[in-house]
């Protein structure tokens, strides 16, 4: 579904990604791991068009997207849950969802407000509240629900549960598990290695702007040496 081929992306005069290659297959959950500052967010931003790669290819469902603007990439079927959530704070939960509702990918069974409420019941309870009045965990649920409302074929999550209480994290991981069962392809960044390797099929590990390891998630989960080498503090 998604393939990155030797992507190089930079900020100003310097490079942040050095020949990054990875892929996400249909109905697959892929984890992207690494310490802070290793290029994970830049990879996500490159895919969605917020940072234009200087070289390499990004191919989504057979279409090269590395030179397309973000809104066209979204309309092709890629949804983003950005780091920091970036919900509309003055709009209600319901308005946040209605503002982006679309089905550009022409799914036969599209995500509706009722469907996203079934995944995150807290949002239904708070649908009349403003986005800015929600807790951090509820805002993250809203950010995921909002991305689903464009009915993507691929969901990108940058820091799925960062800074959230354990109980809220469980709800979010449960919701992502439901999405996986429904066949949604997901590329997810998070620091909870155990949760990620439980839900993901494959894992990529980044260091200094490069992919330094890739494989089945259960392999990474079993390798203490690998975890300490690339992910330990």
Key traits:
233 residues, alpha/beta, Rossmann fold, four-stranded antiparallel beta sheet, globular
Provide an overview of this structure.
This protein is an alpha/beta fold. The protein has one domain (2-230): P-loop containing nucleotide triphosphate hydrolases (Rossmann fold). The chain has ten helices and ten strands. It has helices at residues 40-48, 70-76, 93-98, 113-119, 121-125, 136-148, 166-181, 193-199, 217-222, 224-230; strands spanning 2-11, 14-24, 29-33, 55-60, 63-64, 78-81, 154-158, 185-189, 202-207, 210-216. The model has no long low-confidence stretch (mean pLDDT 93).
Uncertain regions: pLDDT < 50 for 5+ in a row? none
Which architecture would the CATH scheme give at its second level?
3-Layer(aba) Sandwich
- Please identify the structural class as seen in this structure: alpha/beta
Give the distance, in angstroms, between the N- and C-terminal Cα atoms. 33 Å
- What is the CATH superfamily classification? P-loop containing nucleotide triphosphate hydrolases
Q: What general outline do the C-alpha atoms trace?
A: globular
Helical fraction: 25-40%
Percentage of residues in DSSP E strands: 25-35%
What fold name goes in the CATH topology slot? Rossmann fold
H/E series:
EEEHEEHEHHHHEHEHEEHH
Radius of gyration: 17 Å
